[in-house]
Fold this sequence. Notes:
α5 (235-247) runs parallel beside α6, α6 runs antiparallel to α7 (279-293) and α8 (311-326) crosses α10. The protein has 10 helices and 17 strands. A hairpin with a 5-residue loop joins β5 (111-114) and β6 (120-123). With 397 residues, it is of the alpha/beta class. It starts with 8 loop residues before the first helix and ends in a 6-residue tail after the last strand.
Amino acid sequence: MLGSATPSLESVALARQGRMTTLRLLDRAKKQPLPSVRIVDLRHVGAGPSGHPKLSLPLHRALEHVLAQKEQAILFLNRRGFAPTLICEACGEIVRCPRCDVSLTLHNRRGTRARRDGTLEEVPPGLRCHYCDHLEATPRACKKCKAEKLSLEGTGTEKLEEVLAAAFPAARVARLDRDVGGGKQVEQILRRVRAREVDILVGTQMVTKGHDLPFVTLVGVIDADGALSLPDFRAAERTFQLLVQVAGRAGRADLEGTVIVQTRSPDHPAIACAARHDVLGFLAHELKDREELGYPPFSRLVLVRLEGPDEPRTAALAAKLAEAARATPEVSEGHVEVAGPMPAPMPRVRERYRYRVLLRGQRPLVRNVAMAVRAALAAEGKGAVRVILDVDPLSMM
Length: 397
């Protein structure tokens, strides 16, 4: 049995085909009304008294009201750290991870990270890579031009926590993200929220699901557009699911709930439908788009992922795999199309270069794709390039 307020499009398609049965719960558990949702268009609405652009005037006033009523609020921002980018104002150079093609995130507070044995270790303030856990001290000058003109761009949960503490000095603010620690620390924070020792809880996806906090009457979505631009055909679906899930944290008891969604794309179906609590409307729109573009659930995908320490060799093997796949009968008969080879959206992680080949079609693709991969690997010989067949991938990243 699968249960969700936001079922996947694949599950919806299976139900429409009669391969699954749909059972609908039309009311919340305690018959509470769904929270009212207000969209704040950041293109036209400026910052509140704090002066920070991520804390708009309507959200600031809503927080003032919640605090005056002795109620609680949750603010959702799906970005950890203090600032996601450190950039040189003189030459434009971004401080990047030496092992990955990503910018380093500034953390001003101590955090935790997982060791290989699964235990947690404390890490000091500084710059961190969220992909390989690389750590380094925050530089005073640009490594490229030596200018001491480094500035911070963007806002993470750590920065938002600081802004809220300054804007509402009497409020008790807590943060819930991966940097606060493991299960015990997370549960300790949630116990404080349940005991009403926290007025405003700031966090990443960890605050969006499963929490039943009766005195939370306000949910603020700081940046609803963050995931919409990701190079993944499921970006809109995931955004919609997150918005519906985090909105469900408000008004779960006798007190009415309010949700404020800050966005620059108020007309996007994922945001507009979430504001109306219109799950069926979003599913209908997204299913139509997926069918027109030939993406799941109207096709099958196999994503061949390659990664290796030598970029030319990895790229060459990806080209051989794509060539071998195009030689299969399904491709020549028009049942399957091949895209690539191409670099992955994140081209280098942990000093390994990443390429991919995407196959899309109406029929199960695994057997012949696996045969093509084996043929290409046999021609290449044993090496350091790793090949992964991701059948019906959940993430395109």
